[in-house]
């Protein structure tokens, strides 16, 4: 009956409120029978009689949940919920935050403040909201929200101050002891590791001759036993220092975390080392899809290049013939096609590279492009000249050629340079731009089919009949090794000078790469034949009084009874001209 009577009075009060504020306000009833009076256009408060009636009603129906202090004593009760948090959850969270305030030695209790929010009063410390007081909390006590907030504020500060005053010295001593324990354990671990590594090294040295052998393949030794030992010692020392660094890295944060004022140091140290690794790992994980795309493009292009190489290899071996396309063009053309395919592959891969869309990446790309353009003009000119020379086909590997004043065999031909080996085994490198801009003489291109004409000139006085000289020179050429008998050697009289006639002997050979030897033998044979035929090879300005002087022919070719002629003196008398 008492409950019915109170309910009847409560309904009458609601009716009175509805009649008084019907035009400007209203009321709502929540699921837990908590009544909140909502005023739309006025700041008037409910009368003391109404507030007391609501408080009595809530006390009879509502159940509070205790907020516990540091000594597990009850500080106050939470009756209402805020948002999705139930009274019990709020009580647990407030208890946890009060304990956190107590454990923080650097907390400034004067910074704990009461802030009025839209529908609540909040007790805050910095960015942390310790608790919020709503009308649901103040109604059971018959107080306003501000009054209840001031009461809770005082209780929280008093319990934290009291708890810290009781345990401050004990905490300090305990934390110092913990630091000493951590240092002692770290030293013990370091000492144990040092002894363990020392014993392991002694054991390793004792087994060195048994375990370590020279690492060799056939006659080549990759690593001797001493070198292997050095490598092993280096790896062991690197591993030992890695363990030491890890232990130091673990020990320091543990020590820092013992004292509240240095806990941030531990967090900073962890972030200092872990953040870069974490960033790298996250970046790698995020980049994996792009990495798979790059691999897919690479493998497709790799096998496409292999197929292109197969085609050009078949052309080089003349298994596949294309009209107008020479076999020696195959590899240079393959190099060009491969370069273009790789360039196309890079264009496809570029958007998937990390940081390709960043301004720094673009700036570096432009800078490298400018450097390449300014610094590689000569190289590009040589490359273009190398391509032109390839398709002009003025020579090939192994040909005896002459470029400017340099003659030799072609040993290498690239896009940038051409290398020749002279008869003195000198390797001369000539830029392709110089090759293209100058004259190139190829001695080998026609020597196999038509023969190369070698020629040399001999000057003989007018006293020797030209027919005799022709016969002598042709005989000398016929005696020379590597000179062809067909077509036959022939002689040309190239000039009639004041004191001599210039005879040029011409002979065919297919050994263009052995010209120096052929010329040497030919000159020897010319000397022999001329001496055998009694023909003197005189220098252009040679003067001789023949009477009374030896001939210039070597004595081996003269008769045994040969004597130098005497002087002939003729005296004539003119009797008709006497004085």
Please describe what this structure looks like.
With 579 residues, this protein is an alpha+beta fold. Among the domains are: 2-61, no CATH class; 65-173, no CATH class; 294-375; 382-442, SH3 type barrels (Roll); 452-542, Alpha-Beta Plaits (2-Layer Sandwich). It has helices spanning 2-20, 48-61, 87-103, 135-138, 145-206, 208-211, 225-258, 263-316, 330-349, 359-375, 377-392, 432-437, 466-479, 515-532; strands at residues 25-29, 35-39, 65-68, 74-78, 112-116, 121-125, 128-133, 215-217, 220-223, 400-403, 406-413, 417-421, 427-431, 440-442, 452-461, 490-496, 500-509. A five-stranded antiparallel sheet has the order 13-12-11-10-14. The longest helix is centred in the N-terminal third of the chain and has 62 residues, at 145-206. It is elongated, with a radius of gyration of 56 Å.
Rg from alpha-carbon coordinates: 56 Å
Mean pLDDT: 79
Total of DSSP H or I helical runs spanning 4+ residues: 14
Shape summary:
elongated
Distance between the termini: 204 Å
- Find the count of extended strands (DSSP E, 2+ residues): 17
Multimeric state = single chain
Low-confidence stretches: 1-55
The biggest beta sheet is recorded as: 5 strands, antiparallel
User: β content, as a range?
Assistant: 15-25%
Structural class: alpha+beta
Strand order of the largest sheet: 13-12-11-10-14
**How much helix is in the residues?**
40-55%
């Amino acid at each position: 009956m008492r409950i019915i009577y109170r309910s009847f009075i409560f309904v009458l009060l609601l009716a009175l409120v509805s009649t008084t504020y019907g035009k400007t306000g209203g009321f709502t009833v929540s699921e837990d029978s908590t009544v909140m009076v909502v005023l739309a256009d006025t700041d008037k408060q409910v009368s003391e009689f109404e507030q007391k009636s609501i408080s009595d009603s809530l006390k009879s129906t509502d159940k509070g949940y205790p907020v516990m202090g540091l000594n597990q004593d009850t500080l106050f009760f939470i009756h209402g919920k805020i948002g999705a948090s139930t009274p019990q959850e709020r009580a647990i969270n407030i208890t946890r935050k009060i304990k956190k305030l107590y454990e923080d030695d650097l907390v400034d209790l004067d910074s704990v403040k009461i802030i009025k929010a839209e529908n609540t009063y909040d007790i805050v410390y910095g960015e942390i909201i310790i608790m919020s007081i709503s009308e649901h909390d103040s109604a059971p006590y018959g107080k306003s929200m501000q009054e209840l907030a001031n009461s809770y504020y005082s209780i929280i500060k008093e319990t934290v101050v009291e708890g810290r005053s009781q345990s401050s010295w004990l905490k300090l001593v305990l934390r110092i002891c913990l630091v000493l324990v951590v240092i002692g354990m770290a030293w013990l671990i370091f000492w144990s590791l040092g002894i363990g590594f020392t014993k392991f090294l002694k054991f390793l040295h004792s087994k060195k001759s048994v375990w370590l052998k020279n690492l060799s393949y056939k006659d080549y030794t990759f690593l001797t036993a001493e070198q292997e030992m050095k490598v092993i010692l280096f790896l062991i020392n690197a591993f030992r220092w890695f363990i030491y660094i890890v232990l130091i890295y673990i020990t320091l944060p543990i020590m820092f975390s013992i004292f509240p004022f240095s806990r941030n140091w531990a967090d900073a140290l962890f972030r200092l080392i872990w953040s870069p690794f974490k960033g790298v790992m996250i970046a790698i994980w995020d980049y994996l899809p792009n990495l798979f795309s790059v691999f897919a493009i690479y493998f497709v292009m790799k096998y496409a290049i292999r197929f292109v190489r197969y085609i050009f290899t078949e052309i080089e071996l003349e298994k596949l013939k294309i009209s107008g396309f020479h076999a020696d063009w195959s590899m240079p053309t393959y190099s060009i096609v491969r370069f273009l395919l790789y360039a196309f592959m890079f264009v496809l891969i570029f958007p998937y590279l990390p940081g390709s869309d960043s301004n720094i990446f673009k700036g570096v790309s432009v800078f490298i492009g400018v450097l390449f353009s300014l610094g590689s003009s000569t190289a590009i000119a040589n490359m273009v000249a190398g391509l032109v020379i390839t398709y002009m086909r003025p020579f090939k590997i192994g040909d005896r050629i002459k470029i400017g004043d340099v003659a030799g065999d072609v040993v290498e031909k690239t896009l940038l340079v051409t290398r020749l080996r002279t008869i003195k085994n000198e390797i001369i490198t000539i830029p392709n731009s110089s090759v293209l801009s100058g004259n190139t003489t190829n001695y080998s291109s026609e020597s196999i089919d038509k023969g190369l004409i070698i020629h040399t000139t001999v000057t003989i006085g007018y006293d020797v009949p030209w027919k005799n000289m022709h016969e002598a020179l042709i005989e000398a050429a016929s005696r020379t090794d590597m000179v062809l008998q067909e077509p036959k050697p022939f002689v040309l009289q190239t000039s009639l000078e004041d004191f001599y006639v210039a005879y040029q002997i011409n002979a065919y050979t297919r050994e263009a790469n052995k010209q120096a030897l052929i010329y040497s033998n030919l000159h020897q044979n010319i000397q022999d034949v001329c001496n055998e035929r009694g023909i003197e090879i005189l220098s252009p300005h040679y003067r001789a009084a023949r009477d009374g002087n030896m001939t210039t022919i070597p004595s081996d070719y003269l008769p045994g009874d040969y004597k130098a002629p005497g002087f002939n003196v003729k005296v004539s008398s003119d009797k008709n001209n006497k004085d």
